[in-house]
Amino acid sequence: MKFFVYGTLKRGFPNARFIPDKHIQSAVPARLKGFDMYSTGAFPAIIRGEGVSQGELITLKSDAPAQEILRSVDQLENEGRMYRRETLPVITKSGDIEEAYVYVWLYETTRLKRIKDNIWHKR
Fold it and tell me: Domains, the chain, ranges and CATH?
């Protein structure tokens, strides 16, 4: 199972614990084309647009409790209400294209601040 994370789920960020290091096979820099990033204040949101959002591609180990981790991340992201989990192609730093779960914002962004470089930095 693979996740593209671009905010507080990235390694070294506050919610990284929801995808525990002991269950991660790899975490590599990656990007998602056609998505713009916005700040809600405490965390980022991405929506379809013209940008290229930056993040990490996290691949779980084969023996990881994948469904348990997925449920935990879905709950954190308020899947279906705040974000929608989609399977999308992401591009790794080495140029490989991988399908991964990505959480896409469901609300309007008119009141949110656009993150021009499409990179969520520690706050």
Answer: 2-115 (3.10.490.10)
